[in-house]
Amino acid sequence: MRARRLRTPSTALVLGLLLAWVSLAIAGDDFRVQRLDTRLDDDRGYRLSAEIDYGFSAEALEALDNGVPLTVLIHIQVRRSGAWLWEDSLADLQLRRVIRYKPLSERYQVYTLPDTEGRSFVSREAALRALGELIDLRLLGAARLAPDSDYEVQLRTTLEIEALPLPLRPMAYLKPAWKLSSGWTKWPLQP
Length: 191
Prior knowledge:
It is a single chain. The strands form 2 sheets. A 6-stranded antiparallel β-sheet has the order 6-5-4-3-8-9. The protein has a 3-stranded antiparallel β-sheet with strand order 1-2-7. It contains 4 helices and 9 strands. By secondary structure, it is α+β, with helices and mostly antiparallel strands. The protein is globular. This is DUF4390 domain-containing protein. InterPro entries: DUF4390.
C-alpha cells in the first residue's frame, strides 16, 4: 500500500515563501548604507556625509560594462523622531547619481544629475565607491529644528528602472536581479 502525502494550501504557501527567500539569499546583491554622519556647520545648518555600498547584481554589472548607464535614486528625509506617517518632513531631498562605462576611453564615469560630466575612473570598483560617497551634503538650517525635540535622518537608495533604456525596462521590472534597494535606514540627527 502506498503512503499518501498531505498537501494543504498552507504547506504550499510555506514552501513558496521558503523558495522565494532562498532565491533572494542566493542573489545576495543589494544596496547597503554603511555609514552616515551629520554635523552642524557653524550653527547655520546641518550637513550629511554617507557611504553606500552598491552591491549591483551580475545582470546590472553586465549591462553597465556594455555601456548602459545605471541611475540610482538617493532619497533623504529629516523627520521628528517618532513622527506619524502623515507628518511632513523637515527636509526631503532626492539625488539622482549615474555610473556609466565609456568603451572608447575604457573609463567609468560618475556624476550627479542634471550634470552630465563628473569624475572619471579607470576601475569599476573605484567608480562604485565614488558612486556611494556623499560628502558634506547640505540638509537643512539649524533654525528649523525645535530645541526640545529629537530628529532623525532617513536614507534610502534604489536603482531607478525608469532611467534604463526602453528595451531593457520590461525585463528589469520582471527580474528580481534589477529590483535593488537599501530600504529605509534611520540615524539620529547629531549636532
